[in-house]
Design brief:
By secondary structure, the protein is of the alpha/beta class. It has helices at 66-74, 79-88, 98-112, 123-133, 143-152, 170-179, 197-200, 206-210, 220-225, 239-266, 268-273, 275-325, 340-347, 364-377, 426-437, 440-450, and strands spanning 2-5, 8-11, 23-26, 32-34, 115-117, 160-165, 184-189, 212-216, 331-335, 356-361, 380-387, 393-394, 401-402, 412-418. Helix 2 runs antiparallel to helix 3 (98-112) and helix 13 runs parallel beside helix 14 (364-377).
Length: 451
């Protein structure tokens, strides 16, 4: 399989059998060869200037042209030798400072050396990749915000977690990685089925997916109201339809047999005249019958496969509904493109008391509305609306400083802990809380209105 990555194409056949972290060189033809570690000896390049004030970037400092570099590539010269020739043919390289020389060499190596390193997929690597390349697919969820979600949600092995996300399966994969295959995960999904593009990139074993359940959001209201129901489960899903098909097939065969007898009676004279033509037509009819039989067998097998999948899907749906009815989930994670308020208010019903929940949104206004609704509803404590501020630093000898570019924002988090909601005293408690929070002047006006 041909892989294209950053204007470089190669085949991964030779990488099979090597450990993660192995560095390869891309040779001619796109084949990979393990790179041999060579000690870099550059004594002549250590001659450096004191500053770069007298260096003018006029494009004339490099003697090698693009055609010369292309000719070197066509000859099969490795990238390391091309970088060395670029250094030797640069008129301003020796006048640059040591830091500028290192930066120049690093830049040229990245451009001309075809070297790749295969690393083991992890939450940090995948979240960084998605945020840098396709942030829209993960709702601009930054990697440090994802780390905060896993911490605030108390994700650990043995938990029973509810995950609602539309981030291409990245949040689900992060939760699965943190739990390590122990515990239960219930994924709530909109539409016809869950999206797990990023989850498949983690390379989890099948054991991790045994405890992964899924439930559609469209059936949450019916489950809460007690009207949830599925179609009756047949004990043997393929028997009923197949019996009907066989009965229909037998009647069809009877009809065809009657038609064949009528045709044989009417064509006896013609068959006596041309016996050779009769043999040819019989051969053709036999081939047609075999073709029809094979076609019917394939159709029956397809029907059986579809029935089996539907039966398994319905069975898993009933099992997931039973898990949700217990209402003892250990946590709730929400990171979707939909408004968080209706999602959170409905899904909190399945979470046990004294359990954490975390809601992510790219914008703070929906979370502010969600915060207000939760305060009015009650049943939660320690509500916090936070934003993580991230700035990368360059850490090098004598050159440590904050980087000039930084992320503008990584989204907002609403977190809290569930408690038992006393519905009988909720109205009076809310009124008392409002009285305590409101100033005396407003309190008097409220009392006058009630009188």
């Amino acid at each position: 399989r041909k892989i294209i990555f950053e204007k470089q194409w190669f085949y991964l056949d030779n990488a099979i059998g090597h450990i993660y972290g192995t560095t390869f060189e891309v040779t001619s033809g796109g084949n990979l060869q393990p790179k041999q570690e060579v000690e870099e000896t550059t004594p002549e390049t250590k001659e450096a200037g004191t500053d770069n004030r007298n260096i003018v970037d006029d494009g004339k400092s490099q003697k090698l042209t693009h055609d010369d570099i292309k000719a070197l590539k066509d000859k099969g010269i490795k990238g390391q030798e091309i970088v060395q020739q670029l250094i030797e043919n640069s008129t301003t390289f020796r006048d640059k400072t040591e830091f500028a020389q290192d930066k120049y060499i690093k830049k040229k190596k990245k451009k001309y050396e075809a070297v790749i390193t295969i690393v083991k997929p992890s939450t940090r690597i995948l979240s960084t990749m998605y945020y840098a390349r396709e942030p829209g697919k993960i709702n601009h969820l930054r990697y440090d915000t994802l780390a905060q979600m896993l911490t605030l949600g108390n994700i650990r092995a043995g938990n029973k977690m509810i995950v609602m996300e539309t981030c291409a399966g990245l949040v689900l994969g992060a939760v699965m990685e943190r739990m390590g295959g122990y515990g239960t995960i219930i994924q709530m999904y909109p539409g016809g089925g869950p999206v797990r593009a990023a989850t498949s990139c983690f390379g989890f074993p099948n054991l991790f997916f045994n405890n992964l359940h899924e439930f559609p959001l469209s059936k949450v209201d019916s489950l809460l109201s007690g009207t949830f129901s599925t179609e009756t489960l047949p004990s043997e899903p393929e028997d009923n339809v197949l019996v009907e098909e066989e009965s229909n097939g037998s009647t069809d065969e009877k009809q065809t047999s009657l038609q064949e007898t009528e045709e044989e009676s009417t064509t006896e004279a013609a068959m006596e005249i041309n016996q050779t033509e009769e043999q040819e037509t019989m051969d053709i009819n036999a081939e047609d019958v075999e073709f029809k039989e094979n076609k019917e067998k394939g159709y029956k097998e397809n029907v059986r496969e579809k029935q089996r999948k539907q039966w398994e899907r319905r069975k898993k749906l009933i099992e997931t509904a039973a898990l949700l009815r217990e209402k003892n989930a250990d946590g709730l994670i929400v990171a979707s493109k939909f408004h968080p308020t209706p999602l959170l208010l409905s899904l909190l019903e399945f979470v046990a008391p004294s359990r954490p929940f975390v809601v992510y949104c790219q914008y703070k206004e929906p979370l502010l509305e969600c915060y207000t609704k939760l305060r009015e509803r009650g049943g939660v404590i320690n509500l916090k609306l936070s934003e993580t501020w991230l700035r990368n630093y360059q850490v090098l000898p004598d050159r440590s400083h904050p980087k000039l570019t930084m992320s503008g924002g990584g989204g907002y988090l609403l977190s809290g802990i569930t408690v038992v909601l006393d519905k009988g005293n909720s109205d009076s408690s809310n009124l008392e809380a409002l009285k305590m929070e409101e100033p005396s002047s407003k309190r008097c006006k409220v009392q006058d209105l009630h009188c």
